[in-house]
């Protein structure tokens, strides 16, 4: 899985749409993530509407690039029918990572914007996409064809590895 070692955060995108087939593959990858007791607490909002992308770009000071992205996925969590609520954020994180890796696999670039657990950001995102009350916004992932892609840094640090024998 080369995407693990080539994926970087991309914040500038070409002005061309992302094909529906690629978006579907990204969503399938998200839903293939592990989930505690298979609760699959996720819902995904795919945003291509420019006015909504602009609203999402105002959710946090770090979200500006969302206004110029051709598409963004808002990863959301369900509040009802959840078996292990303490692990919902873990499940959503795993789905988010799968999204980022599949974006890379598709020759695209994207970035994860942290929304949860910041209440104000979560509320702004929910308002921007008219989220029902039984869902909460977790992350925003703007993506598209990258204008520029930098190489990934080698983050392996042997000093952080501990073997228990």
Describe the protein's architecture and organization.
There is one protein chain. The protein is an alpha+beta fold. The chain has a single domain, classed as 3-Layer(aba) Sandwich (NADH Oxidase), CATH 3.40.109. The chain is 31% helix and 17% strand. The protein contains 5 helices and 5 strands. Strands 1, 2, 3, 4 and 5 form a 5-stranded antiparallel beta sheet that branches. Helix 2 packs antiparallel against helix 4. The two termini are 28 Å apart.
Short structural description:
The protein is 31% helix and 17% strand. By secondary structure, it is α+β, with helices and mostly antiparallel strands.
> What's the average pLDDT?
96
> What's the CATH architecture name?
3-Layer(aba) Sandwich
How would a textbook summarize the main sheet?
5 strands, antiparallel
Termini separation comes to 28 Å
- Give the helix proportion (percent range): 25-40%
Shape: globular
Give the full name of the CATH homologous superfamily. Answer: NADH Oxidase
Rg from alpha-carbon coordinates: 16 Å
CATH topology: NADH Oxidase
| Series of H and E elements | HHEHEHEEHE
Number of continuous helical runs = 5
Number of domains: 1
Number of strands: 5
As residue ranges, the low-confidence spans are none
């Amino acid at each position: 899985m080369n995407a693990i070692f080539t994926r970087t955060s991309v914040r500038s995108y070409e002005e061309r749409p992302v094909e529906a087939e690629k978006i579907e593959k990204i969503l399938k990858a998200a839903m293939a993530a592990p989930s505690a007791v298979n609760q699959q607490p996720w819902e995904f909002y795919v945003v291509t509407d420019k006015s909504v992308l602009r609203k999402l770009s105002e959710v946090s000071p770090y979200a500006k690039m969302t206004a110029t992205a051709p598409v963004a996925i808002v990863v959301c969590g369900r509040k009802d029918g959840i078996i292990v609520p303490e692990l919902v954020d873990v499940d959503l994180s795993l789905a988010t990572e799968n999204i980022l890796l599949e974006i890379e696999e598709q020759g695209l670039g994207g970035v994860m914007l942290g929304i949860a657990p910041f209440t104000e950001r979560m509320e702004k995102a929910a308002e921007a996409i008219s989220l029902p009350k039984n869902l909460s916004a977790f992350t925003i992932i703007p993506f598209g064809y990258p204008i520029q892609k930098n190489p990934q840094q080698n983050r392996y640090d042997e000093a952080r590895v501990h073997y228990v024998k």
